[in-house]
Amino acid sequence: MEHQTIDQERERLSYRVVEAIADAMDTDVIDLEPPLYSVIDPEALELLFAGSRSVAIRFEYNEQIISVNADRTITIDDMVCD
């Protein structure tokens, strides 16, 4: 059952944002400083994108501009992340 929990966590938008930031910084998600939750509330991020509304946000993390668009595309400093 633990495997399913990990898979579900990786599908969360907040986790995808953390992964994209870690990839862009060429580091592991565990080593990100500061942790994402100190910059933006991960639960609020999930709730914001849970509805069918057209929403997009931008925030700064370690001097990089992170954008999350309505289609859940994550962009870091104008570079689209998978």
Number of DSSP strand runs: 4
Write down the overall mean pLDDT. 84
Q: What are the segments in which pLDDT stays under 50 over at least 5 consecutive residues?
A: 1-6
Radius of gyration: 13 Å
Sequence of strands across the biggest β-sheet: 1-2-3-4
Approximately how much helix is present in the residues? Answer: 25-40%
Question: How many DSSP helices?
Answer: 3
Cα(first) to Cα(last) distance is 27 Å
Shape assignment: globular
Whole-number tally of structural domains: 1
Strand content: 15-25%
The profile of the biggest β sheet is: 4 strands, antiparallel
List SSEs in N-to-C order.
HHHEEEE
Quickly give the structural class.
alpha+beta
Descriptive overview:
It is a single chain. The protein has one domain. Strands 1-2-3-4 form a 4-stranded antiparallel β-sheet. It contains 3 helices and 4 strands. It is an alpha+beta fold and 82 residues long. Helix content is 38%, strand content 20%. Strand 1 and strand 2 (64-68) form a beta hairpin. The protein is globular, with a radius of gyration of 13 Å.
